[in-house]
Write a structure and sequence with these properties.
Helix content: 25-40%
Number of domains: 2
Bound molecules: NADPH dihydro-nicotinamide-adenine-dinucleotide phosphate, the ligand O=C(O)C1=N[C@H](C(=O)O)C[C@H](O)C1
CATH topology of the largest domain: Rossmann fold
Catalytic activity: (S)-2,3,4,5-tetrahydrodipicolinate + NAD(+) + H2O = (2S,4S)-4-hydroxy-2,3,4,5-tetrahydrodipicolinate + NADH + H(+); (S)-2,3,4,5-tetrahydrodipicolinate + NADP(+) + H2O = (2S,4S)-4-hydroxy-2,3,4,5-tetrahydrodipicolinate + NADPH + H(+)
Largest sheet: 7 strands, parallel
Strand order of the largest sheet: 3-2-1-4-5-6-12
Number of helices: 8
Radius of gyration: 19 Å
GO molecular function: 4-hydroxy-tetrahydrodipicolinate reductase; NAD binding; NADP binding; oxidoreductase activity, acting on CH or CH2 groups, NAD or NADP as acceptor
Strand content: 15-25%
CATH superfamily of the largest domain: NAD(P)-binding Rossmann-like Domain
Family: Belongs to the DapB family.
Main location: cytoplasm
Keywords: Amino-acid biosynthesis, Cytoplasm, Diaminopimelate biosynthesis, Lysine biosynthesis, NAD, NADP, Oxidoreductase
Distance between the termini: 41 Å
Order of helices and strands: EHEEEHEHEHEHHEEEEHEH
CATH class of the largest domain: Alpha Beta
Shape: globular
Number of strands: 12
Length: about 270
């Protein structure tokens, strides 16, 4: 049985992970971590089991095998410090990280296993591969990315949309910093630029579409999530995998065989 500690446990995703753990025969909730000034602090985190929302200082490291972080970027440094202090593997799922925070992930990965996933759905991992392949195969296509999320989302474009842009740039051997056009506004597009359009509305869980267009033809590769269980299950799957790994910085792609599957398919 794997004991899971969840950061951001009171949030939309934290609750989804706790719910997923109630039906998981290999893993259980060991710690539901919130801020000390959280309105959830001290309350029961589960319906039947005696797990309460605690603060990070109250974490009992011997009771936890892996940490899953679905809080916000502001909490990343403290969460990584805890993982380092207690030598615990950590799956980081928060988005909107700046360059310094991404460097901090790499620094933590020198001493503990760290898996960073802007999207824990296997469908998006597959989409990334398909986008890389399509971008390489259509070097002259204009690439644009659309994403839609719920009205409460703070960051934009979404972490997933940026990861898909990076996969497209990689497919063409381009540096992401050179082709990232950000959210589209006025003015004509450059030949290589990859731009985003963003929708925030109601309770949309997460939708992404990558368009590769040449004059007269358009490829659209898309993905929609309608239930946060998809992300929660993906994060737990990643956590189970990570707790058997050596220190290092991993991605969801490392846990899957998609690249080999794609290569085998292409050889046929
Ligand atoms: N990788 C993936 O597949 C997915 C990633 N995400 C990402 O996960 C993150 C959380 O999303 P979501 O659950 O919707 O967000 P919520 O706002 O619902 O939850 C975030 C939780 O973090 C806690 N929090 C807020 N501010 C701080 C802070 N400064 N320090 C520590 N904790 C804080 C809050 O709990 P409290 O105040 O009670 O402490 C809050 O409940 C986002 O970055 C989102 O983009 C979302 C879905 C899927
Ligand atoms: O905030 C969300 O809800 C989501 N965030 C992630 C992102 O920014 O890509 C993943 C998912 O699409 C939901």
């Amino acid at each position: 049985m794997i004991n899971v500690g969840v950061f951001g446990a009171s949030g939309r995703m934290g609750k989804a992970v706790i719910q997923a753990l109630t039906n998981d025969s290999d893993a259980k909730l060991a710690a539901a971590i919130v801020r000390k000034n959280s309105s959830s602090y001290g309350q029961s985190a589960t319906e039947n089991e005696p797990v309460h929302f605690i603060s990070a200082e109250e974490l009992q490291p011997d009771e936890v095998d892996v940490l899953i972080d679905f809080s916000l970027p502001e909490a990343l440094t403290e969460n990584l410090k805890l993982a380092e202090q207690y030598q615990l593997p950590i799956v980081v799922c928060t988005t909107g990280l700046n360059d310094k925070q991404k460097e901090r992930l790499a620094q933590a990965a020198e001493t503990v296993p760290v898996l960073y996933a802007s999207n824990t759905s296997i469908g998006i991992a597959l989409l990334e591969q398909l986008v890389g392949l399509s971008s390489a195969a259509l070097p002259d296509a204009d690439i644009e990315i659309f994403e839609a999320h719920h009205r409460h989302k703070k960051d934009g474009p979404s972490g997933t949309a940026i990861s898909l842009g990076e996969a497209a740039a990689k497919g063409r051997n381009q540096r992401w910093e050179q082709v990232n056009d950000g959210i589209r506004g006025e003015g004509p597009r450059s030949d290589d630029g990859i731009g985003f359009s963003v929708m925030r509305a109601a309770d949309i869980v997460g939708e992404h579409q990558v368009t590769l267009a040449v004059a007269g033809e358009r490829i659209e590769i898309g993905h929609r999530v309608s239930d946060r269980k998809i992300f929660a299950d993906g994060a737990l799957r990643a956590g189970k995998w990570l707790q058997e790994q050596a220190p290092g910085l991993y991605s969801l792609q490392d846990t899957l065989d998609l690249q080999n599957i794609l290569q085998r398919m292409l050889k046929r």
